[in-house]
Amino acid sequence: MDFNMKKLASDAGIFFTRAVQFTEEKFGQAEKTELDAHFENLLSRADSTKNWTEKILRQTEVLLQPNPSARVEEFLYEKLDRKVPSRVTNGELLAQYMAEAASELGPTTPYGKTLTKVAEAEKRLGAAERDFIHTASINFLTPLRNFLEGDWKTISKERRLLQNRRLDLDACKARLKKAKAAEAKATLWNDEVDKAEQELRVAQTEFDRQAEVTRLLLEGISSTHVNHLRCLHEFVESQTTYYAQCYRHMLDLQKQLGRFPGTFVGTTEPASPPLSSTSPTTAAATMPVGPSVAGLAPPGEAALCLEEVAPPASGTRKARVLYDYEAADSSELALLADELITVYSLPGMDPDWLIGERGNKKGKVPVTYLELLS
Fold first, then answer.
1. What is the pTM of this model?
2. Same-domain check for residues 225 and 353
3. CB under 8 Å to 64, separation ≥6 — which residues?
4. What is the pLDDT of residue 309?
5. What pLDDT is attached to residue 264?
6. What is the DSSP letter of 307?
7. Where is coiled-coil annotated (predicted)?
8. Is 79 in the same domain as 148?
9. Domain span at residue 121?
10. Which of 145, 240, 269, 340 is the most buried (most CB within 10 A)?
């Protein structure tokens, strides 16, 4: 009991001494041991790494899970060391609603068929999103959390110890200075000065040892950057895979809907980043129009007499193909991405289609697969 009381009293005395030293330093009434410039740079880099890691982690969590309530729920499950329950993605939920709507409104109607096709695509998009979230969480979020909850806590602990050792060292310096001043006035014996010098030597040794430990941990931030760089590459790879899957799914859906007569209206922007500021449908409206051809009708309603089709007298336009396109029948022209073809419109044609020519071949081509050139 006496030992514990003495230890508590000693700890209280040390804490009081450090508090006095810290306060006097703040008011400029005591000297402070400064760390070297390299050490200060290491501290600054470590603080920046911690701050930016926190910001990147939080924003990535928002990207992967925009719902704040869901993020809080996942955080609680993680803290309780319990498995987070599987959650339906927004795409999968939309697919479910569309499928149910198609079933109730008529699965054989044009609208019902389109709802079914879009529902299948949305379901695939939802599954791709789920895989992306899972991969990004493991390969990117987890390493960032491990740094903040592991390495950074260790660094912070050692920095606090270093601060305490510095305060002890400067307090010993102050006591020695006072002892020497008193000795000069013959109010203290030499043994008081010797005691202060011994305490200073011990404090300096402990400070140097703690400074070295802290320095080694701070220099380890370079390894943290290398690890985070690798994780960042993996995050980009997973994101690239996800968007590539989404692009393929939507391109397949676009091809399918393009063959549904009267059920699909092309978008005013291409499915991939536009190569031109001119939107396909707007450009199609300004296409040169050739003479009317008897029997011409929108795709699927009547066969196009290709031998009767001729370029309009007012000229034609060049177009760059954005995506590969497989012709559905002999009236269509198969396309390869990035190739150049000649296109024009005819009276009575579906506005989502043009006549395309490549060499001695011609046929209908979907506007949404083209970038019309000036």
1. 0.61
2. no
3. 132, 133, 136, 137, 141
4. 66
5. 40
6. G
7. 179-213
8. yes
9. 12-258
10. 145
